[in-house]
Amino acid sequence: MHIGILEDDPLQRRFITTSLKDWGDEDTRVDAFERASELLAALQKQTFDLLIIDWYLPDADGMHLVQRLRQDFGWTSPILFITASQGENDVVMALECGADDFLTKPIRPAELRARLSALARRADINKGMVAENLSFGPYTLAPSSHSILLNGQAIPLTSREYDLAALFLSHIGQLFSREHILEIIWGISADITTRTIDTHLSRLRKKLAFGGQYGLRLKSVYQYGYRLEPVS
């Protein structure tokens, strides 16, 4: 599990990181950031299973940042919001803007770990890639047979094309940067250009009719990446 922490106070940042040192499994990794711009830059190159975001930041408002992650980036993974404010209205505002849970300072390590465990269970993070068939309209993702069906017919795909299709069908609406796709599908050290990603996705768009005619459109977001979005 990979956790991202956005907290501008160095003492709080160190405290939260230390509190999570022995939490989760042996593969749990924690990266901490001081500024919103640093987190946004990291999101273009790597993936996180959970985010912990402070309300007051030097270069952004925490609530607006959460809204941006949800609406513009299509972020679906859990977000825990932390703040010194204990007002009920603030809690409501944080949840309405897209946070999954809310924790007030001073942070208690045991409560922090308990809330993160609950969020992880809710999101089923530890289950990993979807194991059962996943359907959206005429599309069916069938992991057991490593295939994608359109109107009940298996579409011939290469292994790489299947991995790309499975990624987007499992995260409909989420925006992926080219660097993020490169990390997930090819491996972060792969010797490949982002143009190759564009070529693969162009072929995938044709093979799976991701042009919107069957309810899903693979959209290119200028200078960023791709998102598979529903079409009404």
TrEMBL record:
Q: Which domain of life is it from?
A: Bacteria
Question: What Gene3D superfamilies does the record point to?
Answer: 3.40.50.2300, Winged helix-like DNA-binding domain superfamily/Winged helix DNA-binding domain
Using the record's annotation, list all stretches that form the Response regulatory domain: 2-120
- Which Gene Ontology BP terms does the record give? regulation of DNA-templated transcription
OmpR/PhoB-type domain spans which residues? 131-230
Sorted alphabetically, the keyword list is: DNA-binding, Phosphoprotein, Two-component regulatory system
Write down which residues bear the modification named 4-aspartylphosphate: 54
GO MF annotations, alphabetized: phosphorelay response regulator activity; transcription cis-regulatory region binding
Residues annotated as DNA-binding are 131-230
Listed under GO cellular component are: cytosol; protein-DNA complex
Instruction: Write the signal peptide boundaries.
Output: none
InterPro entries assigned: CheY-like_superfamily, OmpR/PhoB-type_DNA-bd, Sig_transdc_resp-reg_receiver, WalR-like, WH-like_DNA-bd_sf
SUPFAM superfamilies, A to Z: CheY-like
Q: What is this protein called?
A: Response regulator transcription factor
Protein source organism: Vreelandella azerica
